[in-house]
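My current task is to audit a protein record that another person submitted. Alongside the sequence sits a line of tokens, each denoting a local backbone shape. Please read both lines and tell me whether the tokens look consistent with the sequence. Do not assume that whoever made the record got everything right. Thanks in advance; the entry in question is below.
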Amino acid sequence: MQKPLSLILSLILICLLSACGPGANIEVTTNNSTIQLRVPGPNPLVNQPDAQGQVAQAAAGLWHGLIAPITLVISFFEPEVQMYEVHNSGTAYNFGFFLGEVLVFGLLSLFLRIRRSA
């Protein structure tokens, strides 16, 4: 039982890692549909100012990461609301956004753990 599970998990890991390569494209075909999974491409608006002449930096990324769950829900009803600023500074903004997401889910899990133990 342990050996087949290890083999299956290894194959899944290999597929996930190979999907992260540049230009990777995975096609999943079922009887009724075909889904193409691709690695996100470059953002042509990195370091390009928006209409107000601003480029989002790491602090804006952190804020956008913190409010991302809320903006996700709002974006379902308001098409002009987006979770992610495309006019950003690149790696610094992405790191801030990721850090904001980690903080949100980390604090949420801490709150739930404290609530369960009480």
User: Anything to note?
Assistant: The chain has four helices and two strands. The longest strand covers residues 25-29.
